[in-house]
């Protein structure tokens, strides 16, 4: 009986020691994953300059309407393309307004005038679009037909559901000459004997020698 009591007491003491040890030591928290700052969504910004697609086609139609109005001398059609605030800088440096452009269109009697414009790039800046391209202008200057080729920059502003040109600038490209330069001869020039007419006096001085008298 005494032996049984001693074993029971020993078990109780060991259980108390284990309980006290577990109460005095808090279990370590599980390691947490490193926290990173939340990254905001950064979608790729769309390119503002394009050389193909629906945007270029849209502005090519506007440029075609512009050219067609110039060629047919259609004042109403040209008014649908040009903004009332338009400023035009020609290839020669002349600055005109929209009203002056319309007046020049109606007063121009050149029946050979033909304008062709081709859009190369379009840059979208919200409600502003910048179109760059090439142009070919056939017209008469001092009675002679001239073919002017160059580049243009047209600035359009969105108005309601359409676009109106507010600024236009053209730059003519130099025309390369197809004539071959004349080759200069390196040979010596031939000897030239001047001919004198009867009315001209010779510039040569003649010395006359006389014999002394005996």
Overview of the molecule:
There is one protein chain. The chain has 214 residues and is α+β, with helices and mostly antiparallel strands. It has a domain of 124 residues: Roll (Nuclear Transport Factor 2, Chain: A). It contains 4 helices and 7 strands. The chain is globular. The relative contact order is 0.11.
Briefly summarize what is shown.
The protein is α+β, with helices and mostly antiparallel strands. It has helices spanning 2-24, 54-72, 75-79, 98-107, and strands spanning 49-50, 82-89, 95-97, 114-125, 128-141, 144-159, 162-172. It has a domain at 49-172: Roll (Nuclear Transport Factor 2, Chain: A).
Proper CATH architecture of one domain: Roll
What is the class of one domain in the CATH system?
Answer: Alpha Beta
Kindly report the CATH topology of one domain. Answer: Nuclear Transport Factor 2, Chain: A
**Extended strand count:** 7
Characterize the biggest β-sheet: 7 strands, mixed
Helix coverage percent of residues? 25-40%
Mean pLDDT, nearest integer? 78
State the end-to-end CA separation. Answer: 199 Å
Rg from Cα:
48 Å
| Main sheet strand line-up | 1-4-5-6-7-2-3
Computed structural class: alpha+beta
């Amino acid at each position: 009986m005494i032996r049984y009591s001693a074993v029971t007491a020993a078990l109780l003491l060991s259980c108390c020691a284990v309980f006290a040890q577990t109460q005095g030591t808090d279990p370590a928290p599980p390691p947490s994953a490193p926290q990173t700052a939340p990254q905001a969504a950064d979608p790729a910004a769309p390119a503002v300059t394009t050389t193909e697609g629906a945007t270029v086609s849209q502005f090519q139609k506007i440029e075609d309407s512009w050219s067609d109005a110039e060629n047919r001398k259609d004042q109403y059609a040209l008014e649908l393309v040009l903004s009332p605030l338009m400023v035009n800088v020609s290839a020669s440096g002349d600055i005109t307004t929209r009203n002056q452009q319309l007046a020049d269109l109606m007063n121009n009697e050149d029946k050979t005038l033909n304008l062709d414009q081709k859009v190369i790039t379009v840059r979208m800046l919200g409600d502003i679009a910048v179109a760059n391209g090439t142009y070919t202008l056939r017209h008469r200057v001092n009675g002679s037909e001239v073919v002017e080729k160059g580049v243009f920059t047209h600035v359009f502003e969105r108005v309601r559901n359409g676009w109106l040109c507010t600024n236009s600038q053209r730059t003519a490209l130099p025309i390369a000459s197809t004539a071959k330069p004349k080759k200069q001869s390196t040979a010596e020039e031939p000897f030239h004997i001047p001919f004198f007419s009867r009315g001209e006096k010779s510039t040569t001085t003649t010395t006359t020698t006389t014999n002394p008298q005996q």
